[in-house]
Amino acid sequence: MKNRKIMLSIIIGLIVVSIYIIITKPTKLGLDLIGGSRLVLEAQKTPQISKITPDMMDSLQFAIEKRINAIGVAETVVQRAGENRLIVEIPSISDPQKAKEYLGETASLEFKEQKIGLNKQPVWVSTGLSGKDVKKATVGSDPTTGEWKVDIEFTGEGAKKFGKLTQTLVGKPMAIFFNGELQSAPVIQEPILGGRAQITGGSGGFQFEEAKKMVDLVNAGALPVPAEIIEENSIGPTLGLDSIQKSKLAGLVGLALVMLFMIAYYRVPGIIADVALVLYSIFAFAVFKIIPVTLTLAGIAGFILSIGMAVDANILIFERTKEELRAGRTLFTAINAGFDRAFTSIFDSNMTTIITCTILYMLGTSIIKGFALTLVIGVVISMFTAITVTKTFMHLVFGSGQLKHPELFGLKKEQISNSSSFEDTNPRKAKLGVLD
Predict the structure, then answer these.
(1) Using CA atoms, how far apart are residues 359 and 250, in angstroms rounded to an integer?
(2) Residue 392 within a domain
(3) Would you tell me how many other CB atoms lie within 10 Å of the CB of residue 270?
(4) Are residues 276 and 329 in the same domain?
(5) Kind plus residue range of the DSSP H or E element containing 307
(6) In the structure, how many helices (H) and strands (E) does the chain have?
(7) Which of 4, 8, 125, 276 is most enclosed, with most CB atoms within 10 A?
(8) Using CA atoms, how far apart are residues 59 and 167, in angstroms rounded to an integer?
């Protein structure tokens, strides 16, 4: 009983936290639901690039998708148009200028040393160490001043280059340029062999937004081919308001019919399953907002599909429980056995779904990734609600006694076996060793 109360307290705590997250955090909607910005990029030839090849365009498309859809759920559409153009549609960003500024950066990070030029003036000269040698960048802060900075970790080859440079530049400055602008020029006090460096942003330091943007661009890498934005505009939702309203209505009607079926067929356990289903929806929506997941119709479809799988898990559990009750088990034993026997089937079926979603997420486009992500989150949470939440509520409602009213489980009295029933033996016969 104590364990049930603890689990109930945990569930109530999760409900409160989830509702708070849902109320306080905004929902990110996809291009088809809220609209966004549309940009047309054209790959540019250079003295080094005389012809734009399909492979170059594939690399450019991949780099753009990686840059603006870093975690795979922003539902950004990047598609080819002709031989040297890309159409980029970004949800939620209604200001094309903001999208243009973000895409227009090439994330050129260079480390330079100071030398004397032809006019006897000091000039900064490239050392050969650049953003291509960076493994990753993160935002950090100076523990003394509290100013924001950018921490850089080099690749294996980049660490060797950086180590050799700092050995030769002891007592001299090494400048860090980002997109052609000098960020800082610290004097090397001693060789740095750990493969790490910092960009401090000069005497005033960085604003957090500046440091975050630099980190994002450095991690995204430079574009493989120079690209120029030749067209920019805002776009409205690809789905009309009428279609969205009809989709909502269809989803609500479908959910209501499923809940009514569970109550009609499984009676009280069906009501418990419906409550668990509502809690599942709250938990899942809260997780979507925490990540955050950009919801499109594809993502919503994955979420609704996981609702169906959550109901399916409850059906398996209840059918197993009814089998145990028909065999004459006590109510407490039947409930536990029903969950234990159904767990293997639920786990196996959900694991196959999770594996499939993992493959879709790894190999699919951004829209497919959004569908896979919402589905896998829903499957994991549905396992928790179907097994933990439903079981806790079943024990709290029915307790551990005998099943006095089989109709509460949608069973008839004649369906309950007497294998576990017993009658009192006549005391007079018991003294003589005679049992009924």
Answers:
(1) 29
(2) yes
(3) 22
(4) yes
(5) helix 297-326
(6) 13, 11
(7) 276
(8) 36
Coil, helix or strand for 423?
Answer: coil
> What tokens does 433 get?
């060793």
Other C-beta atoms closer than 10 Å to the C-beta of 372 total: 26
426 found inside a domain: no
Whether 311 contacts 258, CB under 8 Å: yes
User: Within 10 A of 154 (CB to CB), how many other CB atoms are there?
Assistant: 20
The neighbour count for residue 52, using CB atoms within 10 Å, is 17
Whether residue 435 is contained in a domain is answered as no
Could you give the CA distance from residue 375 to residue 60 in angstroms, rounded to a whole number?
A: 29
Q: What is the DSSP letter of 172?
A: S
Total domains, the chain: 3
Nearest-CA neighbor of 335 among 351, 349, 356, 319? 319
pLDDT (tens place) for every residue of the chain, 436 residues total: 667 788 889 999 999 999 999 999 888 777 777 777 888 888 888 777 788 888 888 878 877 877 676 544 456 778 888 888 998 887 777 676 766 666 655 556 788 898 887 777 888 888 888 877 888 888 888 887 888 888 888 888 889 998 899 899 888 888 888 767 787 787 887 888 888 888 776 666 778 877 877 777 677 666 667 788 888 887 777 665 666 677 778 778 878 888 899 999 888 899 999 999 999 989 999 998 888 887 777 788 888 888 877 788 889 999 998 888 888 788 888 888 889 889 898 999 889 999 999 998 888 776 788 888 889 998 999 888 988 899 889 888 887 666 677 777 877 777 776 544 444 445 554 444 444 4
Residue 336 inside a domain? The answer is: yes
Would you say 346 and 386 are in contact if contact means Cβ atoms under 8 Å apart? yes
| DSSP at 341 | H
Q: Would the CA dihedral through 251, 256, 257, 262 be positive or negative?
A: positive
Give 195-248 as a DSSP string. Answer: SEEEE--STT-B-HHHHHHHHHHHHH---SS-EEEEEEEEE--SS-HHHHHHHH
Distance of alpha carbon 3 from alpha carbon 162, whole angstroms: 57
Its domain, for residue 156, covers: 109-220
pTM of the full predicted structure?
0.62
Beta bridge partners of 138: 151
CATH classification at residue 74: 3.30.70.3400
